[in-house]
Amino acid sequence: MRPTLAGLVKMSTICRMLLATCLGSFLLVVFYFQSMFQPASVLRRNPFEVEDCCGKEVRSTLQELYSPSQPEQSGTAVLHQTRRDKVADTCRAFSASSRKRRVLTAGDLRHLVVDEDHELIYCYVPKVACTNWKRVMMVLTGRGKYSDPMEIPSSEAHVPSNLKTLNQYSIAEINHRLKNYLKFMFVREPFERLVSAYRNKFTLKYNSSFHKRFGTRIVRRYRKNATQDALLGGTDVTFKEFAEYLTDPVTLRDGPLNEHWQTVYQLCHPCHIHYDLVGKYETLEEDANYVLRLAGVGDSLRFPSYAKSTRTTDAMTAQFFSNISTRQQVELHELYKLDFLMFNYSTPGYLRLD
Questions:
Q1: How many CB atoms lie within 10 A of CB 282?
Q2: Mind listing the pLDDT tens digit for each residue in 26-39?
Q3: For the whole model, what pTM was predicted?
Q4: Of 53, 115, 142, 299, which has the most beta carbons under 10 Å away?
């Protein structure tokens, strides 16, 4: 009996399916045996490794941090791994308070300066050598326009348009940079940073904008029988009045603290953004130049030295804190608690917390 047309079509379809299955199985076997004989270096390629046009390996900044090519840098890499672990442990321990807001807004990213050429993201923290770091970032991103950081006036370093921040990118571009660029920040003992901010913004005459904006408000709220000059000028705010302002619930309800005395974890969001490197003010030049070596510019660019004679010290900080009440000390310690824990700073011995 001759097969029908429908039967022929069905048999043809079955043959094509069998042929496709056999061909697919053959290709899988070929790929399997190819992978068996590939070099281990190809199978275990570092996710941060890239190649140039000629097939030569080009180590990224991230790869240099996590897998140092120079053995002498291995100890430094371990140190920074310890710092990363401390931040992560603190975030987990205080997850309820440190991760209240799950999604960062564009405003949360305005402190993250981006260097496209060297694949760096720097979160600047005022009163932690941020002026010099901005100068260095201008050299790195200026493509030859600047060569010496200290030739850049401090006023120019703080002009927003001179540096590009992460909030200026699209969401896809932000995510790409957060994943592939080396992210770093520099921190400082919280109370030294706080006293440094007070000294700079309230005791120097040239900071009249801070006197007007914050000084007059502080005098009006916390000084009894204030003179008319003090109410209008705000030039003689005491540290005790400043401490009262910081710990007042009204201040916190008014909105975020000014960046100069805001906590680091609120400025840089280390519980939401994984920072690859946490530098410290106490080892500033060593840590800063390590970042520059990772970026491949260590031979041509050095981090500027800072003026140690004017630096706010621990002894100076202790003197300022001796002039405020035990209640204020306890409340300030609570306000900066996560910064103390996250960046491994011990509670100062001069505090009266009992």
A1: 12
A2: 433 333 333 333 33
A3: 0.81
A4: 115
